[in-house]
Write a structure and sequence with these properties.
This protein is an all-alpha fold. The chain is 67% helix and 0% strand. The longest helix is centred in the last third of the chain and has 17 residues.
């Protein structure tokens, strides 16, 4: 999976590459203005550490998708949920329970 493909489900955000940039983002108010920025950063870091084909990452991705759905930000929500389903497929893990939960 390319870096560009990783950005799409995370609302096209780039992972902060250094502590200095993280500090600048905090002081510039980006993280304060965009409450989701820190959560998306966490999802990207998990993906980098655990790898792109690790089913353990799906729960936090689905959870944050639900947060966006509750906030009526459906485009990001669906992108995250689709990303979780792609991970399940690559890992040969059944997503039936997740699909039932999302449909209810």
């Amino acid at each position: 999976m390319s870096a560009n493909e990783i950005q799409i489900p995370y609302d096209k955000r780039h992972e902060v590459s250094s502590l200095v940039k993280s500090h600048q983002n905090t002081h510039n108010g980006r993280i304060r203005r965009e409450g989701c920025a820190i959560h998306m950063e966490g999802l990207k870091i998990r993906e980098r550490i655990l790898g792109t084909d690790n089913a353990e990452r799906c729960y936090p991705i689905r959870y944050h998708g639900a947060v966006f759905a509750d906030s009526e930000i459906y485009e990001v929500c669906l992108g995250l949920w689709e990303h979780a389903m792609d991970i399940y497929q690559r890992c040969n893990v059944s997503a039936a329970e997740d699909l039932e939960m999302m449909a209810s």
